[in-house]
Amino acid sequence: MTGLNRPAIRRRGAIALAAAALVATVPGIAMAQGKAAVTIGLVLEPAPGLDPTTAAAAAIGEVVHYNVLEGLTKINADGSVTPLLAESWSMDPDGKSYTFKLRSGIRFHDGEAFDSSDVKFSFERAKAEGSTNKAKKTVFDNISSISTPDATTVILTLAKPDGNLPFRLGENTAVILDPKSAAGTATRPMGTGPYKFDDWRKGSAILLSRWDGYRDAKAAPIKRATFRIISDPAAQVAALLAGDVDTFPRGIGNQAVKQLQADPRFAVVVGSTAGKGILSVNNRKKPFDDVRVRRALAHAIDRKAFIDGVLEGYGVPIGSHFAPTDAGYVDLTGTYTYDPEKAKALLKEAGVATPLNVTLTLPPPPYARKGGEVVAAMLAKVGVVAKIENVEWAQWLGGTFKGNFDLSIVNHAEPLDYLQYTNPQYYWGYDSAAFRELANKHASTTNAKDKQKLFADLQRQLASDAVNVYLFNPQNVAVSKKALKGVWPNSPIFANDLASWRWQ
């Protein structure tokens, strides 16, 4: 930042001292410094626990995925998929059967051996009645049978073809757990990864340490990792400037980017994400069950002004629930141009009397809290009065994510999650037979040209139905000390692959 006055500098110094004091009072954090350790800034505390197979929060994956818990495959920083617990896989020509050959000699942190029975247990647990795995409908319900002919072979038979299955099994929803320790994963995750869980100081920090029993422990130079939970943007910057945090791989307040770019101690890398920032709309509630009302909301929002004012320009507009990084992405941002008069006309056509009073529920991230103020001001211009309700992340998951809301703002970080729109029970309540039919056709089509057309049709269907107001695809801003190497420049998923990090 430029043009800081002296009082602002003094305030920032006070914040830095407070951040340093916090480090000194949390046991385990002060030692996590030096060439063998790293301290990572985390914007949101994982909620309600550390089990990514039962909870939806992306912050869970930032801590445990690839570090403590592993899946059959791995999604890399460039979006490519490589083997992890599986050493190889093959797909039948019809796309409905996959055979995975597993690595042998692998153990969980408690000494239990890993084999095909653990894969079968984990996937059956994910698709069981009552499962809260967020990929249940899109991934695990599509698995019609799981065969384990021997300890190192797993055969998955699908109800519908899914050419993206290896990618989906690299997400944190598909990590493999052991039957003996699975129930305790939320509070003490037990995996096969290069790091083991040590402690969780609620509200402050999560501590991991390198597991010497890992199959290639020498490949993980970092011995200790401390995740510091810092939600406030000013405190994030203060912690970096004070040297108390080594990196914010994502989520740093964008207003601080220029200041950090000018500081020779840091490397600031702007990369891509699979995120879709949306104004979520409860399609079950009146008057939002009328597509004209949802289209009115879409016309009421100036996406460019939102991105410039809230994200400091670090994002691009989107027009459907797809990211520009998706192969086959169609730019539909012109479907709903910023047009307040059109929005008013659509509300009138739908018989909506204004002012229309609604509640806008906002989780903690700055894009939501700051963005909510911007969105509320824009909606007010067309006669929609949004009462802002700020909630903590656990409250958002327990209320909004259960369908108890009018409007909300959230970034859906998961890649290729458009199949959530085939689930009428998902929190926004979209129930479209037409979309489900398109999704089924897309899944079962093997012709590349037809598949590409259907992928575009899926995008257009969501845009036409204005299920939500599609706002932005955020860019990933990673800030690290220059000597720290290996931090992902892009975020195809929310993960921190600590084993690839090192101090130069």
TrEMBL record:
Keyword Signal in the entry? The reply is yes
Q: For the Solute-binding protein family domain, which residue ranges apply? A: 81-413
Family the UniProt entry places it in: Belongs to the bacterial solute-binding protein 5 family.
Keywords recorded for this protein, A-Z: Signal
Q: Which InterPro entries match?
A: Peptide/Ni-bd, SBP_5, SBP_5_dom
List the PANTHER family.
D,D-DIPEPTIDE-BINDING PERIPLASMIC PROTEIN DDPA-RELATED (PTHR30290:SF38), PERIPLASMIC BINDING COMPONENT OF ABC TRANSPORTER (PTHR30290)
Note the superkingdom of the native organism.
Answer: Bacteria
Q: Where is the signal peptide?
A: 1-32
Concerning Pfam families, the annotation shows: SBP_bac_5
Q: Keyword NADP: yes or no? A: no
Q: Under which name does UniProt file this protein? A: ABC transporter substrate-binding protein
